């Protein structure tokens, strides 16, 4: 067993709390991960982990080793990356997490643009609308919309994403467009249940904010499907700009209540705190900042 492999297996197991989580992070089998840790313990002559049927915990020697091993491994990775990536581009794997619709509409293409000059780089994109524990899942970088990360994570703001009220010309031909937020009570509304308080839509004007409980026609946990339903004439949707593409520019969807301010949500890149950030992760964060600005993902980007 290579000492570095043993240290990586130990750190991953300690940080995820299980051999299963460590194996997923490292791309190894449970058996091999457990074997590496056992061989490291034998080499050091000390038990590092307390095994139970559900979880592993640290012994006193394990706590001592965990206090220093992650930084040592990070420094080693950074040193090797400086040698191998100069002139040859980034290599190895980069595991990224994003919400499903945002990942499908934007992140996948942004990652393709980032990876294009790095032929030896493997992108592993995980899409989920559920909260992902970055340590347990072995995620290098996550893109998140709206939520404030816990203290265990660091964040870089990429921008603000607005939401826009839209309906199709066919729908508006049958139902006069609302001129005030309270008139939404007379309309069929398509509600995205991924939002906090999804049927309460807020509008601002002159410093005052008005919140309307809308009449729900469809409820769906996808901004993309809400857009599709609006496009088909099924009602009014409140969509983040990244799902609309050129729908407004081409007239497929009509913006409503445009003289009111609509909510925006912070778009962030987040990663685990307390670890040295690999060069390729730092490079991806910097690339994302410029990419969001360059493609005009948010016309009112203040990031």
TrEMBL record:
The keyword Electron transport does not apply. Keywords: DNA-binding, Transcription, Transcription regulation. GO terms for molecular function: DNA-binding transcription factor activity; sequence-specific DNA binding. Pfam families: HTH_1 (PF00126), LysR_substrate (PF03466). InterPro entries: LysR-type_TF_proteobact-type, LysR_HTH_N, LysR_subst-bd, WH-like_DNA-bd_sf, WH_DNA-bd_sf. Residues 1-59 form the HTH lysR-type domain. GO terms for biological process: DNA-templated transcription. SUPFAM superfamilies: Periplasmic binding protein-like II, Winged helix' DNA-binding domain. PANTHER family: HTH-TYPE TRANSCRIPTIONAL REGULATOR, TRANSCRIPTIONAL REGULATORY PROTEIN. Belongs to the LysR transcriptional regulatory family. This is LysR family transcriptional regulator. It comes from Salipiger pallidus. The lineage of its organism: Bacteria, Pseudomonadati, Pseudomonadota, Alphaproteobacteria, Rhodobacterales.
């Amino acid at each position: 067993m290579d000492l570095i492999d043993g240290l990586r297996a130990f750190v991953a197991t300690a940080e995820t709390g299980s051999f299963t989580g460590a194996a997923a992070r490292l791309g190894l089998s449970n058996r091999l991960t457990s074997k590496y840790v056992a061989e490291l313990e034998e080499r050091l002559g000390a038990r590092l982990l307390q095994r139970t049927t559900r979880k592993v915990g640290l012994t006193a020697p394990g706590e001592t080793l965990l206090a220093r091993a992650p930084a040592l491994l990070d420094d080693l990775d950074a040193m090797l990356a400086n040698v191998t990536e100069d002139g040859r581009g980034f290599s190895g794997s980069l595991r990224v997490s994003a919400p499903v619709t945002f990942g499908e509409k934007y992140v996948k293409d942004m990652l393709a643009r980032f990876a294009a000059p790095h032929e030896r780089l493997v992108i592993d994109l995980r899409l989920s609308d559920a909260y992902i524990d970055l340590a347990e899942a072995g995620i290098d970088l996550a893109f998140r919309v709206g939520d404030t990360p816990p203290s265990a994570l660091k964040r870089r703001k990429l921008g603000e994403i607005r939401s826009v009220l839209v309906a199709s010309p066919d729908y508006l031909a049958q139902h006069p467009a609302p001129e005030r937020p309270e008139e939404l009570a007379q309309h069929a509304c398509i509600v995205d249940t991924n939002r906090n308080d999804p049927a309460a839509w807020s509008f601002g004007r002159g410093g005052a904010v008005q919140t309307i409980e809308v009449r729900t026609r469809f409820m769906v946990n996808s901004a993309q499907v809400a857009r599709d339903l609006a496009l088909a004439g099924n009602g009014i949707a409140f969509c983040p700009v990244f799902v609309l593409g050129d729908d407004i520019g081409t007239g497929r969807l009509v913006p409503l209540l445009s003289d009111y301010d609509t909510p925006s949500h912070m778009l962030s890149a987040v990663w685990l705190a307390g670890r040295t950030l690999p060069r390729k992760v730092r490079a991806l964060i910097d690339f994302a900042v410029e990419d969001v600005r360059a493609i005009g993902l948010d016309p009112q980007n203040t990031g």
